[in-house]
Amino acid sequence: MDDAAGLLLVLAGEAAGDAVRRLRDAAGLSGVIGTAVAGARPPRWLAAGIFRGGEGLPRRLGFAADILRAMPVTPRLTTPDDAPGLDRVWCVVLSNPAPGREDEFNAWYTDRHLRDVLDVPGYLAAQRFRTVQADGAAPAWAYAALYEVDAARHADAVAEVARRTNTELMPISPTADLASLCSAHFAPAAR
């Protein structure tokens, strides 16, 4: 995927993998259709479409979804392990800064946190985006981060992030509004 292009996230709260796939085909979108990876808690979204561009999105989808347009804040950062042909799990993290601390939040997230996550074995790439609601309304989350994880090492990588969180290896800044933080992991759906 072109890392300079805008991103369109279609995050469906129902088992809508087929609906997201039909949307992709009808709108002529290219990207990834994914289904939620089981975790410690039930996922907020069960299916996702992660597309570059997406200007041809129909106004009515026919299923319930959070739809966000996102413009790059950073280039796509990669690790030496990133290679074409690897099966990937996509982790979408939606976040907000604490009130009045947006500049500090962005400095921490872009200059520190992305690199801390990419230091975890199994994480392949990361990119941050500024979000806007597709319908023009104010989004629930100001920022999105898209992480690519080696599917073969996904479970170990996620466990390692949890182990490192709030340690010197991965400090979490008080400039992040943790109450609004939302994340989900998606594996490619069968075609």
CATH secondary-structure class: Alpha Beta
In CATH, the topology is named Alpha-Beta Plaits
Mean of residue pLDDT? Answer: 84
Summed up, the domain count is 1
Oligomer classification: single chain
For the secondary structure, the number of strands is: 9
Overall 3D form: globular
Task: Count up the helices.
Answer: 3
Helix content: 10-25%
Structural class: alpha+beta
Q: Termini separation (Å)?
A: 18 Å
| Beta-strand proportion | 25-35%
Biggest sheet, strands in spatial order?
1-3-2-9-6-8-7-4
Low-confidence stretches: none
Characterize the biggest β-sheet: 8 strands, antiparallel, barrel
Radius of gyration: 16 Å
Describe the structure.
The structure is a single chain. The protein has helices spanning 17-27, 102-118, 154-164, and strands at 7-12, 31-36, 47-52, 65-72, 77-78, 88-95, 123-133, 143-150, 182-188. By secondary structure, the chain is α+β, with helices and mostly antiparallel strands. The protein has one domain (7-188): 2-Layer Sandwich (Alpha-Beta Plaits). An 8-stranded antiparallel barrel has the order 1-3-2-9-6-8-7-4. The longest helix has 17 residues, at 102-118. It is globular, with a radius of gyration of 16 Å. The two termini are 18 Å apart. The mean pLDDT is 84.
